[in-house]
Amino acid sequence: MTAANQSVTGPVATRSGDGSALAHPRVQAMAALWGAVILNLIIIEVLFFATDPAKNALHATGKFLGLHAALAMLLQLVLIARLPWLDRRLGMDRLTSWHRWTGFSLFWLVLLHPTFVMLGYAQAYNSTFLQQASNLIGMGPTMIGFIAVGIIAVAAGVSVRLARRKLSYELWHAVHVLLYVAIVLALIHQMYEASTFTATTGSAVYWWSLWAFAGLSLIIGRIIIPLRRNARMRLRVAAVVPEADNVVSVHLTGKDLDKLGARAGQFFIWRFVGYNSWWKANPFSLSAAPGHNALRLTAKAVGETSAGLRNVPVGTRVFAEGPYGAFTSIHKTREGTVLIAGGVGVTPIRSLLEELSGPISVLYRVQSPADAVLLAEMEQLARMKGAQVHMLSGRTGVGNPPNIPFAPENLVRLVPDILERDVFVCGPPAMTDAVLKSLRQLKVPPLQIHAERFALAS
């Protein structure tokens, strides 16, 4: 192998009991979330067939799809509410992935719902689809529904991967804020149009309870908790330290930060008040384990906000939402740990190294040694903890044999007992995918694999 390696030797991990898979926080949260979804699917379908008259099969299909669209909207609200219990167990990246697929499902549901309704009316009244569309658009509640459909279609369009790559995070986020307007319009439309919403007292209580739960979850998770925490924390910039030409660390001080419950590996969504516009907020991981009155983030200049951090004045007030993410030690199942970092993904890995105990091996992938930011800190921590740090540099595929640092055989060479350890992976998507593929080939148990991808639902 031609990749350069730097190592600080330490002890070898020993196997520890991993307990029941059902007790794993991720398994518990997934069971709770999907159990709730399945239960509500059953309820709305029972209500539909019991109380929702339809003119014909096409009309019935449209109304059936509309009710499922309403449930998808409610699920979206819960997924983006950033509820601490779900977030700490499932992680923002997993919730964001579900949010994305639920969003595309919602798009097709709200598109097909009016289509089938209008086809049903056309069949019932022996008219054309376009005639029924013209008649329905002229009705207030229906027009409200069509506006909601248009907003959802725009949001779905900018979420397609090709469009997403061309948009800044800030613009993408601003477009998605319009979805809150669409959801309010959809609720008004449902109140006037969906017979299962008002057919019986029980159905009305059921639907209002769902909307109240989802709405309160969003308000509490996105407004009340952040406002209360920031009123107590009073975060300010204490120092700005360049780590490389395009990487900077921002040190923050505040009050009672230990009461946040933040853990190494998590991230916050940061706003620098008075320095950037309020809508310019970015997620950055903690690059050091949180302290009683201090936090640190480290960011690479990849956008306007992150590039401008180098010039943030000391004393700037900071508004932070979080902590978020399940990339923490609460998910550990074994005594030993492997930490794998690539690029700026080193920031949560470095904070985890500071917090973790037991046998630890760190694999740090960089193009060249000059790119290895925070390496000196990790080597110092490794000496204190008796851990191992391997810096893996060089272009992938170059050399004879080719440099493939995360091939299964190379992972086993670097960490012979990798099957007996938890593995935390954070880095660019291609690197993360390569590592996960090798871990699957090595048959590392899924509950021992923890991957953090930089993704965020609006």
UniProtKB/TrEMBL annotation:
CC per GO annotation: membrane
Alphabetized InterPro entries for the sequence: FAD-bd_FR_type (IPR017927), Fe3_Rdtase_TM_dom (IPR013130), FNR_nucleotide-bd (IPR039261), MRET (IPR050415), OxRdtase_FAD/NAD-bd (IPR001433), Riboflavin_synthase-like_b-brl (IPR017938)
Membrane topology: Multi-pass membrane protein
UniProt entry keywords in alphabetical sequence: 2Fe-2S, FAD, Flavoprotein, Iron, Iron-sulfur, Membrane, Metal-binding, Oxidoreductase, Transmembrane, Transmembrane helix
Superkingdom field: Bacteria
Region annotation Disordered: where it falls in the sequence: 1-20
PROSITE patterns in the record: FAD_FR (PS51384)
Keyword match Membrane: yes
Compartments where located: Membrane
SUPFAM superfamilies in the record: Ferredoxin reductase-like, C-terminal NADP-linked domain, Riboflavin synthase domain-like
Domain FAD-binding FR-type: 230-330
Gene3D superfamilies: Nucleotide-binding domain of ferredoxin-NADP reductase (FNR) module, Translation factors
Protein name (Swiss-Prot/TrEMBL): Oxidoreductase
Protein's organism: Dactylosporangium siamense
